[in-house]
Specification:
single chain; 7 helices; elongated; alpha/beta; 6-stranded mixed sheet; 26 strands
Length: about 400
């Protein structure tokens, strides 16, 4: 049996980054850069005003006071998008809008609310420093600067910068196609009445959401019954995608047939079982497809919480690595436990928790029952409380490590 760290290391060393493709900026959100982004031009491209106000010569205001203001002739205005080619004369000022180019000769902008105007003159009652309210050409980025490195996950702000720099298209890593299969004779889809012994197939919907949240394209293979023929056909179809994920059928029961069928299809087992709770009976294997690429295959346990926890710990980082992401490590923070917790085994526990900011101090408590069948506990949680293998009892008030969901 592997530790959580060993299992993760095996998985991440087995998966490869997918090829990149060029997409429009409209399609780039949530994708991962497959190239370095270089500034093609200075940003800003010209000196411009950071405020609505008046552009002027700072030297004309050196002796200005409330009792003896400087009077400057108002010589027009410069709007955003306008081109100002006329040089500003001494003892004159022009009204200027936010983002408008600084007129030649001007070296400061005094904000609108600090200025009085009367009879064609601007009244300045304070000395204005050179460079006030001016955004200089290239002060944010200069042409040739590496703005974003490949492997950067593109959020909304990244798209805005790319647009500002004139990038219409960018190279990004391809989204993995992730086929998922739920297994079990007891499963029925939503909308169907439950007979005795049946449960609704929550795992299909949870896996679809988890795969989407990981940035991949989910492919639903449906539900297989606990017989080898049903499993064979659906698993064979799933091996044609970039990743295959199953839930259920990987334990030691008489109807746990998934591993047997996968191995008959040519999947090479890398390990089975991880020393964690929930989610111990986790299978990971590799299948060499016709394109000579290894397809990672994950057999997740069928209990709903076990399915989700093992996906988050092992499948999600693999998917993110395949997309070229360099930030697949989860964010972990220390927090103060608000209740006692007793652990009687040597496994690494992942407890569903609710993390709160309590007057500047992070506190956490469990969502209640930690049964691996209680899926509502995952919906309530905003973190996982990580209890290492060697740690046993946790007392209220002690520090624990939490992993943000």
């Amino acid at each position: 049996m592997k530790s959580a760290q060993e299992a993760r290391k095996v998985i991440l060393s087995s998966v490869k980054t997918l090829p990149s493709e060029q997409v429009s900026l409209w399609e780039a959100h949530g994708r991962v850069l497959g190239e370095d982004i270089i500034a093609r031009e200075d940003l800003p491209a010209f000196d411009n005003s950071s405020m609505d106000g008046f552009a002027l010569h700072a030297a004309d205001t050196v002796e200005a006071t409330e009792t003896k203001p400087a009077l400057l002739h108002l010589a027009g205005e410069v709007a955003a998008g306008a081109l100002s080619v006329r040089e500003l004369s001494a003892r004159t000022a022009v009204r200027i809008m936010t983002g408008a180019p600084i007129p030649p000769g001007a070296d400061a902008v005094l904000e609108l609310e600090a200025v009085k105007t009367q009879n064609g003159f601007v009244q300045i009652e304070m000395p204005v420093s050179v460079g006030r309210n001016i955004r200089r050409k290239g002060e944010e980025l200069s042409a040739g600067t590496v703005v974003f490195r490949h492997g950067t996950y593109l959020r909304a702000a990244h798209l805005g910068v790319l647009a500002t720099l004139g990038y219409e298209k960018v190279q990004v890593y391809r989204k993995p196609s992730v086929a998922f299969l739920t297994t079990g004779n007891e499963l029925v889809d939503v909308g169907h009445p439950l007979e005795v012994g049946q449960i609704r197939n929550s795992n299909a919907y949870a896996l679809w959401g988890l795969i989407r949240e990981a940035g991949a394209e989910p492919v639903n293979l449906g539900t297989a019954r606990d017989d080898e023929r049903s499993l064979h056909d659906k698993l064979h179809a799933g091996l044609s995608y970039d990743v295959l994920v199953t839930s259920g059928g990987v334990s030691v029961g008489a109807y746990d047939l998934v591993m047997r069928v996968l191995e008959r299809l040519g999947v090479q087992k890398q390990f089975w079982k991880v020393n964690i709770k929930p989610g111990m009976p986790l299978f990971f294997g590799l299948y060499r497809n016709q394109r000579e690429r290894d397809v990672p295959v994950f057999g997740l346990p069928g209990n709903p919480v076990s399915t989700m926890v093992t996906f988050l710990q092992f499948v999600r980082p693999a998917i993110q690595t395949m997309q070229g992401r360099t930030d697949s490590e989860p964010i972990r923070l220390p927090a103060r436990m608000m209740q006692d917790y007793v652990k009687k085994d040597g496994k690494r526990h992942f407890l569903r928790g609710i993390l709160r900011n309590d007057n500047g101090s992070l506190t956490v408590q469990t969502t209640g029952t930690q049964s691996s069948a209680a899926l509502s506990s995952m919906a309530l949680a905003n973190c996982l409380i990580v209890v290492p293998e060697q740690r046993t009892d946790i007392k209220a008030g002690e520090e624990v490590e939490v992993e943000l969901l």
